[in-house]
Amino acid sequence: MRQPLVCRMKPYIQPFERELALAELSALAHTEPVAVDFGSDHPILFSLPPVVKPTTLARHLAYWELIEADQTYYTTQVLRERTVNVVRNGVPTKDIPQLLLFENTALPNRRCLRYGTHGIHEYRGKFFPQLVRSLINIADVPKGGVVADPMSGSGTTAVEAVLGGYHAIGLDMNPLSALMAKAKCALLSVDPEFLISSYESIRGQLLTPPTKRSPQLVYFASLPRRDQEYLSAWFSEQVLQDLDEVARAIQQSNEQLRDFFWLCLSNIVRSVSWQKDDDLRVRKELRLDAEIDPIREFLEELGRSVRVVLAFLYQNRETSLGSFDIAEGDARDLASAWNRKAGKIDAIITSPPYATALPYLDTDRLSLCYLGLLSRPEHRRRDQNMIGNREISEKQRALYWSLFESKKKKLPKSVSSLIQKVSTLNSKIEVGFRRRNLPALLTKYFIDMQQVLEGMMAVLRPGCPAFVVIGNNHTIAGGERVEIETATLLVDIASAVGMKPERRISMEMLVSRDIFKKNAVASEEILCFTTPTQK
User: Fold this and answer.
1) 89 touches 106 (CB < 8 A)
2) Confidence (pTM)
């Protein structure tokens, strides 16, 4: 008689992750796990009847360390996370394969978010990869199924879908985000030896002093004139000269890795500029050229990323990868953007922008300009059109308020009441332009999200789920604190467009570790909606 399987949960995960861990295990095993360590307030050992192969569980589970059966099976997830520890001390690239034997490398004892290609490039509001992986399991996506993210950001959903052997599709209005997601997914299938040789080639090129330095900025001169003028106000001449050397080396590199190299350059652009480094706003802080070395910073960034990715690629060599299709586009137009996938998507996992929370494009403006992704004159126009933006003109404010007056009866009562309350409170006292704009901005945000949810319903298979991770926030209107319970309002909107709310999981937010930590949203929730079983 076959022995029960005993699964060990990661001991350091948060309460909401425990809930996801048990849900993903139940979904994969098609039975409820039973706690084995009864004496503990937070059991981590759970037993299952042997109705599923331990190798299947080990390959898919996100929040579990190992499965005990006829032998011990470590989960693919912890082996992937452990690759980060192997290269933590700047180990030479040639030594990485030997270190992956793991005799001297302990299992992770805390959350690891930057394994594989996930650690490439900073990004505010980045998903937890394990969260995405667990939701794919809970959704019971079939082998080779389609996992989509209509607001793909840094590409976390797409990367995890490809690693799971699924077809990933993603969309984002920010050209840098689209580049990020594509590069991260493409890098998963690169040959490790090819990555090493390409890295050594560009490193050698940049460390070899030029016989004669060109006084002309060849790459910089290829950018639009308005962008050159803008960038000249944010970088010293010497820094632009050094950046030009890096950019020209990237242009001469192999096409398969070029986007990855551009991302590494993008990630240091802000730190070598006069932009105040830890500030979301556009603020200048002049520094001496002696303090800034773009070539050194690029090579350090590239070396760190290459080592982490290399360790992951060696560990992941036996994995059958999925495919991906990432594009620049608008989530409000899903029925058109994904018309060939209408009714064929098995799961959507996404995190929409929050209502007026961040100046999304402004945080990336130097990279967008320098990489030639979006010309500076287009930034304001694009930013004003993005979901969750917080900058509008007087004319737009009047237009959105007129839109609210004409459509408020079609919005859920909870949404229209909030917008009306903020408007009424602000009308009672003198307020600045940002607070004066808020009712119009909230109108735009919730109408935009209504369009997004309608699009999700159009592209999902009948009965399939959309998982939406969203943050709540608040505002001050008329001197009074007003809660913007975005999660509840989106549940109401989803119900109004015909989706069925299934579950809500409150997330305990960690303080963000990146440069935007002071702007972190206080609370988040995971919402799950399903489409009707018959459309």
Assistant:
1) no
2) 0.93
